Amino acid sequence: MAGETLDMSIKDDLVDFLRNGREIRYLNFEAFGYRFSPGQYAIIATEVEKGRIAVPDTTLLPMSSGAAASWKYGLNEFWFPSDADIPNNDAWRAFTAHEATHAVHDMLRPGIIARPVAEAIGYLAEAIARKVQKKGALTDKKGAVDPIRAEAMRVANAIWDPTGLHQMKVSDADAEAFQTIVGNHPHYVAQGPSVEYHGLED
Length: 202
Prior knowledge:
The protein is 45% helix and 11% strand. By secondary structure, it is mainly α. It has one domain (8-192). The strands form 3 sheets. Strands 2-1-6 form a 3-stranded mixed beta sheet, covered by helices on one side. Helix 4 (115-132) crosses helix 6 (172-183). This is Peptidase MA-like domain-containing protein.
């Protein structure tokens, strides 16, 4: 059934990344009034272990062809394709940082929020992960960088703390510019103006 975790290796890899990933140490930032810290990702790891957050077998689910990872808010599920290689592939680690940040944000129970804010926060976490990896923004199959990812990397560079010891904070001006770029992107325009993050329900 869809709610069962059938690929234990991906589940285990996710838990290990959320607790021990080198990128997680740097996910210590504030943006749009929300604060994120490494300990929150460890809580998500525990929720995955307990089964409160599922990592279902996506071969049984309507996952889009070529899709990367996804946090399914309302379902409390992480969706990964069967070839996701979190331990060894930096792109997958960045995707996972992005989606795990949505899970953390959901755990904070902000309620109904603007979709551009929610997505900008996920892309910022992804960009921070790429900086930890000493790599640039993720690209598409043609090598092009989406404007959202380019802006996320610009913001990550602006707030970057190479020590990982201090909370990085996005300025109001950068937050506004970032939110505008996400809000104008056709992909997110089509998805609607808001998302509902009501927490990890029992």
